[in-house]
């Protein structure tokens, strides 16, 4: 994990492996900031959807029990959202390096769309 101090806050960049391990142990909340269409086509099972255009850092829940980690397609939007959360006063926030593309490249499990039927199906499960 890479960390950066921004004022009094800690901005973290987690690797796919770190996210996957913490996710499997239910230690983190994973928030997908991609579009609803991207999420419907494929997503990490259990990740919450909060598209970038609707993001309001002031409405995020506290992180007393679980660390929030944002992710998007490549890591660009999630970094933008994480930095906005810091600007809104969160003291510690994270995003996943490389985004969902890196998650898929690492062959981590996700929900995809069966192109023959249009139905959701587990991939790399």
From TrEMBL:
Coiled-coil intervals, chain numbering: none
Q: Rhodanese domain: from which residue to which, for each copy?
A: 24-112
Highest taxon listed in the record's lineage = Bacteria
Q: Does the keyword Transferase apply?
A: yes
Q: Which PROSITE patterns match?
A: RHODANESE_3
MF terms from GO for this chain are:
transferase activity
The record's listing under SMART domains reads: RHOD
By its UniProt entry, which Pfam families does this protein fall under?
Rhodanese (PF00581)
Identify the keywords attached in UniProt to this record, alphabetized.
Transferase
Keyword Transferase: yes or no? yes
> Which protein are we looking at?
Rhodanese-related sulfurtransferase
State the species of origin. Roseovarius pacificus
Q: What is the lineage of its organism?
A: Bacteria, Pseudomonadati, Pseudomonadota, Alphaproteobacteria, Rhodobacterales
């Amino acid at each position: 994990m890479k960390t950066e101090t921004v004022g009094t806050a800690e901005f973290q960049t987690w690797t796919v492996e770190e996210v996957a391990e913490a996710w499997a142990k239910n230690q983190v909340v994973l928030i997908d900031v991609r579009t609803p269409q991207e999420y419907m086509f494929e997503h990490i099972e259990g990740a919450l959807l909060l598209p970038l255009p609707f993001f309001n850092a002031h409405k995020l829940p506290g992180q007393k029990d679980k660390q929030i980690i944002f992710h998007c397609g490549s890591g660009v939007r999630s970094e933008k959202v994480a930095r906005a959360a810091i600007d809104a006063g969160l003291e510690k926030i994270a995003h996943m390096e490389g985004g969902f593309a890196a998650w898929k490249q690492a062959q981590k499990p996700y929900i995809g769309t069966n192109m023959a039927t249009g139905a959701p199906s587990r991939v790399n499960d």
